[in-house]
Recover the amino acids of this structure.
């Protein structure tokens, strides 16, 4: 069973720019997939359509059995509870501690306090931040902040983790740390991971599935792909 | 269980937000306070006008005098016709004899004068006293009665009543208009002040949406915040209504300017008005914040 299915999707923004042309994709449960491509290739648009920040202009996007395009604004939370999202700019709440930031995701969906505690500590352990529970985001390094945001994304044990350039603000060393965390999550929790990036080294080193986009078109989808400069 | 937990968190967050954004909260509370004071005054005024209009209307009577020559059968016929008029709520019938006895009781002078008249040559007439349901149609009803056989004269204080009725109804409409306009202004003010507190929390709301909070969960703390602001905003207006109106009532001894304009007794009235003011305050806060937060729920 495929976790994500994208059929004949076209996305045209209101300003007339077409970001994606006739895209077809199927992503299996438990896989780790890179989406690569230069600026304006449609990586971010594809990710945004998967968590329904954007709706496809045409075609069908199905995530975990939900038809994303047909989802009403009121029901978007049903989709968002099935997935975790990690952004380049972390998006942490500065006035909350690490623990509170991660717990916030569970409080929002009405979990019990003691269950929140167990899950938050487990998630922070998985990203290797158990000793920074009471720190505030501005006391952490960029890599650590990104790990907090990953912990927040996985705390609800989602089937799918979407990452939009998670290493974009980090140096190569910290980037590799983040990749190790993501790989562990993929292996240990069985979470499907979809990561948009333009970091060549990471893609070549990880040897995962690679979707290459160029100017809104799917160039190829390889099982153990490398970053192909000629395609971009 | 889950719902209670969420509501508990919403109430906690709402109080936190009121305290954290204290200066903005204070601004909205003062806005609500000022408008609610005017609303309270308008409510008190309009209810009092309504009250004394009704008091006066209750006293309005059409007096019908029959011909001297009218027999008992004639009187019965008139009575039947009056009872069939749709606007008549109540009527009493007094024969010449009863009128005479009543007048005799009223003063000694009348007593001695009336004593000399026998039933046959008495100048007194059989009378009906008719009360109407709708004061605005009193003229019509009087005219209808006047046309009946053996009816000699009909009196209801013509000119004065007409003028008063139109004056009262327009005063009532104006006060209602003022109350509604003020409530709308308050809603507008609250929407704007709460918008400020919300835009400071835009990021938080967008993260809530991303981690799968339902719109209900996001909205509830803001709605409760609006209710809290409305609640605090109505404290002073309620105090003014309770103490102010009681003092006014005592000062004028229950009448305004003349015995004609009777004020409503303060006892249950101030509580009802306070409750209405509180209700308006809370409702207005709720509606204001609900519409302010809606904009941010479309991410």
């Amino acid at each position: 069973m495929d976790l994500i299915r994208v059929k004949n999707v076209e996305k045209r923004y209101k300003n007339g720019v077409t970001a994606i042309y006739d895209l077809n994709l199927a992503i299996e449960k438990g896989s780790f997939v890179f989406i690569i491509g230069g600026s304006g290739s449609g990586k971010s648009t594809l990710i945004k359509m998967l968590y329904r920040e954007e709706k496809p202009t045409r075609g069908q996007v199905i995530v975990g059995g939900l038809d994303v395009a047909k989802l009403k604004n009121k029901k978007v939370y049903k989709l968002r509870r099935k997935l975790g999202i990690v952004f380049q700019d972390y998006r942490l709440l500065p006035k909350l501690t690490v623990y509170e930031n991660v717990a916030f995701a569970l409080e929002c969906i009405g979990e019990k306090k003691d269950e929140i505690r167990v899950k938050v500590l487990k998630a922070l352990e998985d990203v290797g931040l158990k000793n920074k529970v009471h720190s505030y985001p501005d006391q952490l390094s960029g890599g650590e902040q990104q790990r907090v945001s990953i912990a927040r994304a996985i705390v609800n044990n989602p089937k799918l983790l979407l990452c939009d350039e998670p290493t974009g603000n980090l140096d190569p060393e910290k980037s590799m740390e983040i990749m190790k965390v993501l790989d562990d999550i993929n292996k240990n929790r069985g979470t499907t991971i979809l990561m948009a990036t333009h970091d060549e080294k990471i893609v070549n080193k990880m040897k995962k599935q690679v979707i290459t986009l160029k100017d809104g078109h799917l160039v190829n989808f390889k099982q153990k792909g490398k970053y192909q400069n000629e395609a971009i | 269980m889950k719902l209670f937990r969420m509501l508990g968190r919403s109430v906690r967050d709402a109080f936190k937000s009121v305290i954290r954004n204290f200066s903005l909260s204070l601004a909205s509370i003062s806005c609500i306070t000022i408008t609610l004071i005017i609303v309270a005054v308008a409510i008190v005024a309009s209810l009092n006008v309504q009250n004394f209009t009704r008091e006066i209307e209750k006293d309005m009577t059409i007096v019908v005098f029959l011909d001297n020559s009218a027999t008992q059968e004639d009187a019965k016929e008139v009575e039947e016709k009056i009872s069939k008029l749709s606007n008549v709520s109540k009527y009493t019938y007094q024969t010449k004899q009863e009128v005479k006895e009543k007048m005799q009781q009223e003063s000694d002078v009348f007593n001695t004068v009336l004593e000399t008249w026998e039933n046959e040559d008495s100048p007194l007439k059989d009378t009906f006293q008719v009360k109407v349901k709708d004061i605005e149609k009193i003229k019509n009803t009087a005219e209808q009665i006047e046309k009946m056989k053996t009816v000699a004269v009909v009196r209801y204080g013509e000119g004065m009543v007409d003028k008063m009725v139109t004056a009262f109804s327009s005063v009532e409409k104006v006060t209602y208009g003022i109350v509604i306009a003020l409530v709308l202004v308050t809603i507008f003010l609250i929407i704007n002040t709460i918008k400020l507190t919300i835009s400071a929390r835009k990021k938080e709301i967008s993260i809530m949406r991303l981690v799968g909070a339902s719109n209900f969960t996001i909205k509830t703390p803001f709605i409760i915040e609006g209710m809290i602001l409305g609640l605090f905003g109505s404290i002073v207006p309620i105090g003014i209504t309770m103490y102010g109106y009681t003092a006014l009532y005592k000062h004028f001894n229950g009448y305004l300017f003349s015995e004609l304009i009777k004020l409503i007794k303060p006892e249950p009235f101030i509580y009802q008005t306070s409750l209405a003011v509180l209700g308006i305050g809370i409702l207005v806060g709720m509606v204001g914040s609900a519409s302010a937060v809606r904009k941010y729920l479309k991410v």
Notes: The interface with chain B takes residues 51, 53, 73-74, 76-81, 85, 91, 93, 104-105, 107-110, 112, 152, 156 of chain A (CB under 8 Å). Residues 172-189 of chain A form the longest helix (18 residues).
